[in-house]
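Example record

The entry below shows one chain as it appears in the dataset: sequence first, then structure tokens.
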Amino acid sequence: MTLTYDAEGIAVALFAKLQTTSGLKFSSRILKTIGEVPTEDMPALFQTMGDPTPINDPDGLPTGWKYEHIIYCYLHNSDAQANPPVAPSTVLNNFLEAIKAAIVPVVVQGWPGFPGQVQVLGDTLGRIRHAWISGPVWSDEGVLGDSLFLIFPIEVEVR
């Protein structure tokens, strides 16, 4: 896959990285409701586009961009009725850790101004400055019964 630095190229690169999440059974860039996803397809991950924001540089450098993507994860707590039952938060926390592992920062050497470890989605030109979970992670904590969800933004900064 050749990385392009437009909105679609960034979305594709992020989605490819998220598809490496351990335990993931289904993924799509077309959002479905939790009721449309069979439990046997869970954990399921959906990536949608948020609002791109320009990053204007006061020194006249080219405009950078922050691309926001909203990630929806649907899970099923198949052990909710076990003895002892598995807490919904355990299922949610474990899957969030798997996602964090899929987008863990990597060591980047030789790029001026980099703090040392960032997630660059395979960028070799130094244009992607980081991809990270950039806001709160919402969950239902089992309000929907054995079906669970996580919703959170991931931001990708491109210069």
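Notes for this example: The first strand starts at residue 26 and ends at 28. The chain has one domain: 7-158.
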